[in-house]
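Review form for a predicted model. The reviewer records the input and the model, then writes brief findings.
Reviewer: anonymous (R2)
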Amino acid sequence: MKTFVLTFLAIIVFASITSALSTDLKPEYRPGETIIFELNGVILEPLFRDNIEFLRGHVIVEFQHQILKLGNRYFIYALSLSAENNYTFVIKDVVTLVNGTVQTQIMEQNFSLKGPLIDYNINPGAVLAQGDTEFTLTLNKDIDQTISVGNPQVSVILHPGLNNILIPFTDFAPGFQMFPFGMYQIPIYAVKSLPAPPLPPRIIYVSPERLDETFFIGRQRPLSFRVINRGDKELTTIVFSYNAEKYTLTPNNLAKLGVNQSIELNITLKKQNQSIIDIIRITSGNETAEFPINITYIENLTIINSITNGTSSNITQQNYYCEELNGKICSSAEECQGQLVSSLNGQCCRGTCVPIPKKSYAWLGYLFAALVLMILVIIGGRYWKAKHSSKDILKKRMDDAEKKFTS
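Model under review:
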């Protein structure tokens, strides 16, 4: 009897834990559809796009997606792929309350893409409206389609392909509402935009504004950036704060920098094959500037890392559909300008498909003319040789006959 009670209590606790977070994600959608759903539950720390993953089996696939906090509610939208398959939505590192205790949870929920390609999708699928917002609708049909937008409804004609529609939210009442957009209900949160306070003029400029570099393991190139004095007085005692254990700056200090003058600084990595995320802070008196750097190393372009059961594994791109690699299959009349990789549905172009230039066959005409000329030269040469040879033989015979006659 005690065992039954303990087991029963464990089931109740487990149910409360798993139900601490929930969504209104449907179990089935059409391929190409814009998936829009809400995340419900107590969320104590902000969530961002990086908290979200979409999996096919254990393979991470790329859905164009975004998460937005509209008022006190979180909404997620994603542009689904155009192929039927089963997927898992994952949201990681959610700080929430479970039975009054702060816990970090991972939520998983399965869904499927089934049926024919959806008529059209929409991006974005949720909006924090502070003014005019442009929506992009992609019509997957070969003929125009009319949809109804807004309340009161207005008819809008969609043409095949991309359609950009501007919605003025400036006069909308502040707060949350669902905005009808054809077959979709778009969650929006209208806010009145306030004039931004004037920013103090920047004195220390950095060019470029940030450094994002990806290297193959074992390779790198020189890295540098430039510091510029845009103020009206000389900068003195310029100090650089950074992670000196991973890289160095040359020069690593400056005594002064004149008005409108600049200086180039070089970054030297102390350890190769080690990714770096850091911020270089530049200070001179009360003036400061920040220079974010993000240096990443990868093995090669044909390996994608994924997480399977908590362990790292390598999955080749042959386990992906071309759409999941953000690529396209080029037609027989096109060639790929960019990286060409193998996928489940053929050779996938992760670049641009361009028409194959038409081949010129003019060289065949030149070759034919050269052959004809060569044949004529050979025939002419043989004719000339035969003609002169016969004259020489006749002359020789006449000379021999003359000698005999005179003798």
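Findings: The first strand starts at residue 21 and ends at 23.
Further findings: The helical segments are 2-18, 362-406.
Recommendation: see findings above.
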